[in-house]
Write a structure and sequence with these properties.
This protein is an alpha/beta fold and about 240 residues long. It folds into 2 domains: about 140 residues, HAD superfamily/HAD-like (Rossmann fold, 3-Layer(aba) Sandwich); about 80 residues, Putative phosphatase, domain 2 (DNA polymerase, domain 1), CATH 1.10.150. About 50% of the residues lie in helices and about 10% in strands. It has a 6-stranded parallel β-sheet, sandwiched between helices.
Length: about 240
Amino acid sequence: MTHSSSVVIAFDADDTLWPNEPYFREAEKEVLKLLERYYRGNNLLDHLYAQEVKNLHIFGYGAKGFTLSMIESVIELSEGRVTGAEIQDIIELGKSIMTYPIQLLDGVEDTLNTLKDFQLMLITKGDLFDQESKIARSGLADHFDAVEIVSEKNDETYTRLLQRHKIKPENFWMIGNSLKSDVLPTDRIGGTGVYIPYESTWVHESVSDDHAAEHHYHELESIRDVPALVHKILG
């Protein structure tokens, strides 16, 4: 694609372009129901979260790692009494997360069409196969000049991507629902971060108000507000 502007506008995928987090939270509820048969202790949800985080460096982000962590937790908390059929139920929950129909959030396609004169990127983290499948199911791939699926989103990742695509940090915008992964790293490397909160965010992606206040970024209510912000700043 040929563009008149050197500015590159990148979008996060999950919970920015389409819902994702609610499917994980619903699966967690089902796992908690299963555990009630075996475990009467408190803070079950905290245990499941701790197991996920502990395994991130092994399994990475995404539905597969989530499913394996849930199975591990259930085996541990049930003291090995969980049945094969119940483990199969957890596997089926994981499969449902990896195959749910993609429903675009309001305004996504209109916004991408409005910004077609800019170079557009999609930058998402997680399991390669899972993310590729979601992008294909979304029907949005043709809107983007480049798609990057990464294992982590941090300053080093963004710096490496910008170097590879020969993008100057001052010409880079990153739009997403996570301050930790999308917005604050972009500000730290000299780009423009745009935060669009989603109705629910995984606790691992949360940052303190004090930490967020140390950074400069734009916050919008809807992805529909992105073109107006872009034209206000860039003219």
